[in-house]
Structure formats: C-alpha cells, structure tokens
C-alpha cells in the first residue's frame, strides 16, 4: 500500500469541504431512552461530539463526514460496543484507529470508499464479532487487515468489486456464522481459497449474484454449512459445474435459483442434477429456473430433501412415477403453469405437510381427490391461482383430514352446498378473500369447523342475511367480513354473532354500513378490536360498545360530523377510538365533543390525521379553539342591555312608545312595558 500517494489525493479531495463545514459542527445526538446509546446520524457532523459521555456503548454516527479515522478520533469513547459509520465518506483508517475500544463488537463501515486501511487498524478490540464492509469499493480481500479479527461471526463483503477469494485463508473462520459475498464479480472458486471454511460450523455463505463459471470439483468437500446461496449465479455456468464443485458438501439450505426471468432461462436437464447425489442438503430452491423435461432420473438425487422450492420453474406437470420422495415435507410450486391440481402428482410426496400452489398462471381445475394421498398435509395455499372448483369443497379436499390452514383467496366463483368443509374438520384458518361464494343449505356452511380461529370472508359476496352463517364457529377469534354488504346497511341485533362468543377481532370495513344497532355486538364479550372504517356511518352509537372492555374501535373514513358526548362516554374508560378522516364539525354545534376530545387524547388513535371538516378543514381537532361560551355571554349581555334601555325609554316618554307600536318589530315588548306602567 503506497500510503504517501493516497495521502496526497485524500487531502486534496477532502480538505476544502472539511474546513468549510468545520464551523457548523454541532451536537445533534439523541439518546435512546435510558440507555447508553446515541444516535447522531445525518447531522452533518465533522467530528465525534465532545458532549458524548465516556460511558457511551452504542453510537450511530452514520451519514456524517469523517474522511480520516486516526488514533484519537474515538479516544474518549472507550466503552463502545456498537459503532455505525455507514456512509461517512471515510477514505482512510490509520494505525490504532480503534485502539481504545477493547469491547467493540460491531463495526459498520457500509458505503465508505476506502483508499487505505492500516494493517493494525483493527487492533484494539479483542473480540470484534461483526464487521460490515458492504459497498466499500473493495477489489481484493488483501486490502482488509485480518490479523486481529479472530472472533468474527459476521463478515460482510457484499456489493463490492471482489473477483477472487484469494486471501480468504488469512481470516479466522472458527466462529464465523455469516460470510457474505453477494453482488461481487467472483467467477472462479478454487479449493485452496475456501479450504479455510472447513473450520466453520453452521455457516451461512452467500454468493448471490456473482457470475460463477467454475468451482474446483470438491472445493467444498466436507464443509458443513447452514445455508449456501448460489442464486443468480447461473447466467454463465451450467448447473452441473456448480454441483460438481459442491461435491461432498453438507448444507441445510441450498439456493440455486435466480431472480429475474432472463430471456434465455437456464435449463435444468435430468443429467445436470446428477451432482446432487453427492451433496447432503435438506432444503433446495430452484426458483425461476427452467425445467426442460422430466425423466425418471430427474428426482433420483433429491430423495433426501425436506423442502423443495420450484417457484416459477415453468412446470405444467410433475411425473406421476417419482420414487423415494418420502422425506419431503414442504413443496412450493408457486407461479407455474398447471392446468389441473392432479398434475402435481401429489401422491409422490406422501409426507407433505406444506403445499403451496400460489399464483398459478393458467386456469387450475381442482377435481375430486387430487390431493387425497396427502393425509399429513397441514398447510395448503392455492391463492391467486385461477382455481376452478365449481361446487366446492367436499370432494376436492377429500383425504386432507389433517389440514389446519387453507388459503383459497383470490380465485373464481365457488358454489357451496351442504357441508363444504366436511373433509377438513380440524381447520384453524380459512381464507376465502375475494373468492365469490354462494351457499345453499339450511345450516351454516362452516358448522363443523369447531376449531376454526380465523375466517377471512372479505369481498366474497357472502349473504350476511343468513343468520346461520357463523354457526358452529365456537373457537373463532378473527373474522373479516370486509367488503360484504348488510341488509339496508345496518348491523342488526341479529342472532348471527351469538355463534362466535370468542371473537376478538371483527373487520366490517367497506360494508356500506349506515348504522349499527344498539345490541349488535352484545354477545361478543371478548371483542378487542372492531374495524368499521370506510363505511357511511354518520353517528357514533356508544350503546353498541358499552359493555366491551379495552376495546379499540376504528371509525376512520366515515361520515361522522357531530358526536354526542353522552354516546362516546358510554365506552369503557380503557377503550380507544380512531376517528381520522371523518368530516368532523369544528364549530359550536360540536363544542361538547371537541372539549371531550381535547381532554381525552389518551383515548384517541391517530390524532395527527383526526382533522376538522367544516368550517376549518385540515386543522387537527386537537388544535381547535372555540369561544362559544363567550358568544353566549355576549348575547345575554346585549339582550339585557336592550331590555334596560327600552325600559328607560318607556319610563321617559309614553307617547313616543305608543307610536312605535305600529312601527317596529321589537315593539311588542315595549307595548307590554307601557301597559304595565299605565
Ligand atoms: C497517535 O499516533 C501518533 C503518530 O503515530 C503518536 O505520536 C501519538 O502519540 C498517537 N496518539 C495516541 C493518543 O495514541
Ligand atoms: C427409466 O425409464 C426408462 C425408459 O423410460 C427405463 O428403461 C428405465 O428402466 C427407468 N429406470 C428406472 C430407474 O425406473
Ligand atoms: C392468503 O394468500 C394471500 C395471497 O397470496 C395472502 O395475501 C394472505 O396473507 C394469505 N392468508 C394468510 C392467512 O396467510
Ligand atoms: C384475511 O385475514 C387474515 C386475518 O386478519 C389475514 O391474516 C389474511 O392475510 C387476510 N387475507 C388477505 C388475502 O388479506
Ligand atoms: C340470503 O339469505 C336470506 C336468509 O337466509 C335469504 O332469504 C335470501 O334469499 C338470501 N339471498 C341471496 C341473494 O341468496
Ligand atoms: C356548524 O356548521 C354546520 C355546517 O356547516 C352548520 O349547519 C351549523 O349551523 C354550524 N353551527 C353553528 C353553531 O354555527
């Protein structure tokens, strides 16, 4: 490192603005509540403020200006544990820069363009654990002094120009948990460079977004990683080259997918997967790769997998005779081109607990018993998949007796008869959002779902007049009826809510509601949150919520102008209400409410957005000052003085007053006075 040359450039680059800004340096640091950590970020500071106490353990100094770090920069802060110097325009770190920070554990140097880091820059901290060198224009690992970094757990080199792993061997990897090389220019990985990673246990190693063309076969032999990410690395290389290099590796997670659909997607052929037979892996992601064709050898090396992610892998079917996939518990088939659920050949994966078929690109037929073999299935997600069920769901869900979570949101119209979920009586969660449902039957469609805790029926065109709708849902805690309409816009004192005594969260937003009956929610003693936002309510009916303790009410975006204080006082003391985006009147007609509001701000949610409608739109209700009482006093005074004056006038001249009987509108009183006087 030629320090002299760099010094000159550095001085020229930084000195002028350094001097300019020196005078404006000021202390703008905030202390985290009752803590020894300070946030000085983005304050235009040019040095560490003297006012920081020596006991400071955490300092966020990011987005300030600190071109040089030398042995006295942090001299006062000897207790530092965490130091964030993100984007401080640091170019130079001199000898012994952190010599007094023996407890330093985290050093964040993201986004600084280093020209020089002294060999013993990191001497001092005895146990530096986390070092972030992301976006620091590094081109070689040699630049980073590794001698004193014996306890590193995190070493982040992401987003640099590193093209080789040479000199990685100079780092101590014994405790390393996260080593990140994402978004660099690494093309070749040699066995000698990564030999040192054999000492790490449970490492997360990230090569995401490098253009790997070669890995020396067996380079990672006998490494034991937690995860290894080669996603976005396959633009140039064949998958088999990477897999050959990973021979002998054991890793829990292996990511081989990519991120954007390249014009020529990388093809996966049965032979390119052969290398997987020599790798021990539990979770494998092929996201966005292109499965060219299947043969009976495609899955031959995947038999020990527990989780397989085939998101957007351009698949329209899986072969029906895959052997040995008995360990697979999670299968992700999102964003593919299936035309029928049966084409997933689910019988190949008898141990599945999680199956996701989200975002299918084609109309997806769901016929009888396609998933029948999945007796252990607990989570099934078929949202956004153009699902065509016709009459649902008894025959389709046949055999899925263990199912707990079912997501069929955003699909085509479903008609339900009788007991649609007869096959899945253990459901805990059912999400039918934006899947129009029609139901015919004399009892409730969900009446066998005694365990169900969450039911999302938002925007499903559900017939809410059916008092049996919620029958049997005795465990239900969360219910969304958002976007469905109620007869004449009123939540009635109906029988409906009697079936769900455990309900805690009720969403009734966008239901075109105009009123809520007094006893609508009376059976719901556990209710904690009611959302009636985005309706047409013009009144706050306190009776409906009077029995509920600790409730939060969301009345945002309605048409409420005036609130009667005796109504809002019916709420239990610990309750809270959101009234934002209502056209609240801020004149004397609403004086009582505004006074209540300002005295009960602790009950108001979102006060910043709770603003007036007429006559002062946009003013926060909290800031309104009305002087209605004074006006009243003034009027009384005026009336009194008028009476007084007229009385005096009457006494003064009777004749004059008699004449005015025919002239003025106020004369009745005067006439009366005259009569009394005479
Ligand atoms: C900082 O380094 C300079 C030059 O090496 C040395 O003279 C000085 O004593 C050092 N200061 C501290 C506080 O260590
Ligand atoms: C794979 O299929 C080919 C022909 O389709 C067949 O000859 C071969 O026996 C099959 N191998 C296995 C292991 O099933
Ligand atoms: C169901 O799927 C939709 C769309 O993928 C998602 O937004 C929603 O959160 C899922 N529901 C649950 C309960 O996870
Ligand atoms: C339906 O509601 C549940 C519970 O609030 C929620 O977890 C889920 O994400 C909602 N579904 C959609 C599609 O938003
Ligand atoms: C809704 O349910 C009520 C009561 O069960 C019934 O009378 C009415 O016909 C239903 N409406 C529709 C559109 O199905
Ligand atoms: C308050 O404003 C409303 C609507 O503009 C109006 O009808 C009402 O008379 C006003 N009240 C008073 C006391 O001025």
Automatic annotation (TrEMBL):
The keyword Electron transport does not apply. The keyword Repeat applies. One of its GO terms (cellular component) is extracellular space. The chain crosses the membrane at residues 632-652. Residues 1-21 form the signal peptide. PANTHER family: CD180 ANTIGEN (PTHR24373:SF356), SLIT RELATED LEUCINE-RICH REPEAT NEURONAL PROTEIN (PTHR24373). This is CD180 antigen-like. It comes from Acipenser oxyrinchus oxyrinchus.
